[in-house]
Amino acid sequence: MKLVAIGGGTGLSTLLKGLKEKVGRDVEDLSAIVTVADSGGSTGKLRRIYNVPAPGDIRNCIVALSESEDILRELFQFRFKGGELDGHAFGNLLLVALAEITGSFMQAINIALHILRTKGEIIPATLESIQLCARFSDGKLVCGEEEITEHGKSDRVRIEKIWIEPEGVKAPIDAVAKIESADMIVFGPGSLYTSIIPNLLIEDIRDAVLRSQGVRVFVVNAMTQPGETEGYTAYDHIRTFREYTGIDRIDVAVINTRMPSDRVLRRYLEQRQEPVIPDIARIAKEGIEVYTQDLIGEKEDFVRHDPYRLADLIVDIYRKHGVFP
Question: What are phi and psi of 181, to 5 degrees?
Fold first, then answer.
């Protein structure tokens, strides 16, 4: 099958790590459409200096799909400590340097894909430098992905509207073509407001999804996120996605059913995060088929989707909804 994953952050790179193992067997063509609205850390600094799309999530996805030796993957993720380079990831610097040399951020990505021998394509949602902006329930307007999350977290206010600036940015033609020809489109997992929705705020991306006949799968996050989705159930995630993007048809929802261990759960609760309630009946009433499964693993005290279990389930869903050659 031809599969397109849309999102950003840790969630998308986790999904790609599992799907990489399916390429050449169940997956004929794998592409990721990645948000470039990040404003924090190394990415934010480089954006301000060079006026480029955010490279951070692109870097993580390249590494997730990489078949190169461990040392090259570690080099790409290496962060400098001290001095003027403090906090910068080597991969971010390489992507920006390649973009400066070639005059094309897309060409820079393609060179990096070749260096790390990836099993799939990485395409930014836009090649233009964009800002994510939000209006909160306290009336405050905030721009910047990191700043949006921090304001919601510190002031305990809800996002009432979210948009990108400037308006009318274009998506790469390759992104549109991949979406239109996809057999399956997967949204998430990842930060709902700052990793998933921003991609669909670009009109070209949204319209391509609406035209595509591919099976649409929404992977619901395992935990809520302070500053974005506090108190959200699984249904709330899907409802919010549909409201903001205008993509009403979701064919399948994937929901984790495993609870974290007591030790890990206590740590998350202290940070105002809790397991997403799987209100399956409300989702099913919308005509969405629901797949529930133990999908998380705990590594270094973090709750993350297990990339291989999630990829196995994605393939099983397509076997039911699509037709393998």
Answer: -95, 5
Mean pLDDT of 224-239: 95
pLDDT digits 0-9 by tens, 118-139 = 999 999 999 998 999 999 999 9
d(CA 216, CA 61): 21
Model pLDDT, residue 298: 65
CA angle 139, 144, 149 (to 5 degrees): 70
pTM value?
A: 0.94
The type of residue at 116 is L
Mean pLDDT rounded to a whole number for the chain: 93
Residues forming a β-bridge with 163: 133
Name residue, tokens 């260096």.
115
> Is omega for the bond preceding 189 within 30 degrees of 0, making it cis?
yes
> In 3D, which of 145, 124, 122, 125 has the Cα closest to residue 133?
145
Q: How many residues does the chain have?
A: 325
Closest listed residue to residue 95, CA positions, set 63, 65, 67, 120 = 63
User: Which strand (E) or helix (H) includes residue 188?
Assistant: none
Give the CATH number of domain 2-320; options: 3.60.15.10, 3.40.50.620, 3.40.1550.10, 3.40.50.10680: 3.40.50.10680
Q: What percent of the chain has pLDDT over 90?
A: 79
Strand stretches in the chain, DSSP E: 2-7, 29-34, 121-124, 131-136, 141-143, 159-165, 184-187, 215-219, 252-256, 289-293, 296-299, 302-305
> What does residue 303 show for φ and ψ, rounded to 5 degrees?
-90, 115
